[in-house]
Amino acid sequence: MNDDPKALQKAKHQRRLSAALRENLRRRKAQAKERAGGETAAEGAEKAHDSAGIIADKRAGRTGPVSR
Length: 68
Known about the structure:
Radius of gyration: 25 Å
Largest sheet: none
Strand content: under 5%
Mean pLDDT: 79
């Protein structure tokens, strides 16, 4: 067995890094799967709350203040 403190520290660091990378990959895969199965941004905009009428204005091409 290697009793070198630097080698032990490096091995411990490698294990922590490997675990963090595996968890990161797992999280990224879950996010990608959720995005692929989810709705597109345009579909989400249609379902969004729009009490101010902003979505209709954007679709009509109006960008400035609207007088009502």
